[in-house]
Amino acid sequence: MQGYDTISDFELLDLLRSDDHAAFAELYERYKVVLYLHAKRMLSDQDETKDVIQEVFTQLWTKRADIVISTSVKAYLYTSIRNKVFNLLAHRKFEMNYLNSLQQVIDLGETSGEAQLREKQLIVMIEQEIEQLPQKMREVFELSRKHHLSHKEIAGKLNISDKTVKKQINNAIKILRLKINAILLLLPFL
């Protein structure tokens, strides 16, 4: 059989659908650099850019049996990168808005007694949710958020990689965000 580097993208996609790892590797090699440069222009953060590329190719592999591409594989991958970057930027904007509104509440100073009581209840509930995180994830999260250590400092202290620290913190935030949103919906009834 001829080398994978001479096969068209659509032929590689067909091979990929039949679980051909070499076809996946060839698609990755063909497009990783141009997709990286494309994403880097929009994000300017090397780690986030690498994460976006990894997510797109992971999604390509996991959804390989169901992917329908009507244009070109290259266009599909570029669109996937663009959408992941837009989602990431929207998430960043949401986080910034949340932090700004939180700062405004803090800046307002004293609130009514009822609001203070609710705030204390919320803090206790959040602390309880943090305690329910898996032990290692909780340790990483608390070193980051309570002790204000950098990813590098946490990695050195726990003898793990920076990437593991970042992933643990992101996972903790995802878990806590879901639980805190549920708590916030219920708080008026408590």
Describe this structure in words.
Residues 125-174 form the RNA polymerase sigma factor 70 region 4 type domain. Belongs to the sigma-70 factor family. ECF subfamily. Pfam families: Sigma70_r2, Sigma70_r4_2. The structure is a single chain. The chain is mainly α. It has two domains: 4-89, RNA polymerase sigma factor, region 2, helix turn helix motif (Rna Polymerase Sigma Factor, Chain: A, Orthogonal Bundle); 111-189, Arc Repressor Mutant, subunit A (Orthogonal Bundle), CATH 1.10.10.10. It has helices at 9-17, 21-43, 46-62, 73-108, 113-131, 135-145, 151-158, 162-186. The protein starts with 8 loop residues before the first helix and ends with a helix.
Write the layout of secondary structure elements.
Blueprint: H1 9-17, H2 21-43, H3 46-62, H4 73-108, H5 113-131, H6 135-145, H7 151-158, H8 162-186
Helix pairs in contact: 1-2, 2-3, 2-4, 3-4, 5-8, 6-8, 7-8
By DSSP (H or I, 4+ residues per run), the number of helices equals 8
Note the overall shape: elongated
The CATH class label of the largest domain is Mainly Alpha
Percent helix among the residues? over 70%
